[in-house]
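User: Please run a holo structure prediction.
Assistant: Happy to. Please share the sequence and the ligand.
User: Here you go; the ligand is magnesium ion.
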Amino acid sequence: MTNLVDVKNLKKNYSSKEAVKNISFSIKENEILGLLGPNGSGKTTTIGMLLGLLKPTSGEIKIDNMFFEKNRIEILSKINFISPYIELPKKLTVKQNLIVYGKLYNIQNLQDRIEYLTEKLRLEDLLNRITGELSSGQKNRASLAKALINKPKVLFLDEPTASLDPEIGDFVRSFLENYKQENKISILLASHNMSEVSRLCKSVLMMKNGIIVDAGTPEFLIDKHGRKNLEEVFLKLSRGNNESN
Ligand code: ADP
Ligand code: MG
């Protein structure tokens, strides 16, 4: 199957801090890859480089067989993201935001795209509300609509359900599962929610201190580390007991 994302020997230093130290992985078409790791392990830095926001110190990123150095604009048209650090402009209504982003991406038939996302993400009552006045669950659905406005082939989600109640979290997870299945897109999902990762991700990367300390399917990792669930594997790895057998 085709890889939509290929990362080789990627490194990022912030002055003397080595935030990401030589990581390699790929994401296949129609795959949700989970990115787990304790705070400070380098997940957001990795996503920042994959979005073209941070320049890697060294290493290679290929997205849909293209490199940022040569095909920046084309790559940016094929990806999108949700990040806790970048909010939608607060003073615009949800609809105005979707129109602005749709125009930035030069989306044809923007009205149809907004209607489709409105229906799928249950945004009918939110479209004319001021974005800054929405609850976090409502904002999250609006951010997801923005993230899908350009029909991205690759979606980067940095803790997308972190502040959601269980019901909305469940709605968002079901939505992502169905959307991925229908559109065959690739998703990188950084999350601290282990049941979310177990449910959505066929494979998982475990990061710690800028390194991928383990990787595989949730079942493989649970079995390998002799634990009952992914949460226990996470705790074992993040507490530093990294022996692999
Ligand atoms: P995570 O998303 O896994 O919590 P981050 O990628 O945000 O991890 O951070 C990785 C490491 O890099 C941390 O030690 C963090 O303090 C450091 N770091 C992140 N951003 C910066 C920055 N802009 N300048 C300096 N250090 C940073
Ligand atoms: Mg982070």
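Residues 87-151 form one domain.
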